Amino acid sequence: MTRLDEAAGPVDRFDAARLTLQAHRNTGGCLHCRPEGCEQLRWAVEELSQHPGGRPLLAQARIPLSGTHPCSSEEGRSW
């Protein structure tokens, strides 16, 4: 946890992205999800794709590292 006046560091962003991905895999969405996609999941995918430890998580979720991410529409979700 960081104090409110501290910037989130790389570990905080990675953990938040990991938890976001996990929540979407477990429940199929979050409070930020809309019919046109989820900005929170889009951010998490982008964050995880930039981190070597996040790439295996994306592979497990069957989300490609490049190209169109499945968070832009319901039909692209495989989980």
Shape: globular
Low-confidence stretches: 73-79
Order of helices and strands: HHH
Strand content: under 5%
Question: From the alpha-carbon coordinates, what is the Rg to the nearest angstrom?
Answer: 13 Å
Helix tally equals 3
Mean pLDDT: 80
Structural class: mainly alpha
Helix content: 40-55%
Distance between the termini: 29 Å
Main sheet characteristics: none
Number of strands: 0
Quaternary status of these chains? single chain
Describe the structure.
The protein is mainly alpha-helical and 79 residues long. It has three helices and no strands. Helix 1 (10-27) packs across helix 2. The protein is globular, with a radius of gyration of 13 Å. It starts with 9 loop residues before the first helix and ends in a 19-residue tail after the last helix.
Q: What are the salient characteristics of this protein?
A:
79 residues; mainly alpha; 3 helices; globular
Concise summary:
The protein is mostly helical. The chain has helices spanning 10-27, 39-49, 55-60.
What are the SSEs and their pairings?
Layout: H1 10-27, H2 39-49, H3 55-60
Helix pairs in contact: 1-2
